[in-house]
Structures are given as C-alpha cells and as structure tokens.
Amino acid sequence: MFPPSQAQGANQAIEDAWLLTRALRHAAVEPALRGYEARRARRVRLVARLAASESTNRVPPSPLAALSRSLRPSLAGRLYTHLLYRYSSVLHDEQP
C-alpha cells in the first residue's frame, strides 16, 4: 500500500502548470506570477508536510494495518478523494 502523498509530486507539477497557465492568460507577467505563488504556496505546504511525516518504507503498526484492511473500498475511496481535494487547486477550480 502506497501512502497518499507518494505521487503528489507529479500531481502538484500538473496543477502548477494548470494554474500558472490560467494566471498568465489574464494579467501582466509579474502580477500573474505573484498571484500564482500566493495561491499555490498554502496547498504545496500541506503536501510537503504530509510527505515529510510519512515513513514510506515501514510496515504500519498492527492496529493501523488492521483498520486500513477493515475499511470498505468505497469508504477508503471517499477518504482518499477528500484528502486529494485538500491539496488540489484544480478540484477547487481556483481562479488566478
């Protein structure tokens, strides 16, 4: 089982490109870059904190492993979607 943030580097790069493209369409370059930076900083910090707190090569403690196995796939999917929503500028449809 992979931790949720393991693929977030690629996801964040795609979101950076998406938001930067939108920002540059509607403003002069310098203000667009400042706005882009301000919008992305909060979400990127969340992802970085999560990634720094994970131990990707360790077996989870028994109670945590048992809990993760006991979740219905539909519930696990909803929890993961909620987690991704916290990090996503695209899912929030942020405007530049």
UniProtKB/TrEMBL annotation:
Keywords: Monooxygenase, Oxidoreductase. The keyword Oxidoreductase applies. Gene3D superfamilies: FAD/NAD(P)-binding domain (3.50.50.60). GO terms for molecular function: monooxygenase activity. InterPro entries: FAD-dep_Monooxygenase_BioMet, FAD/NAD-bd_sf. SUPFAM superfamilies: FAD/NAD(P)-binding domain (SSF51905). It comes from the Bacteria. This is Uncharacterized protein.
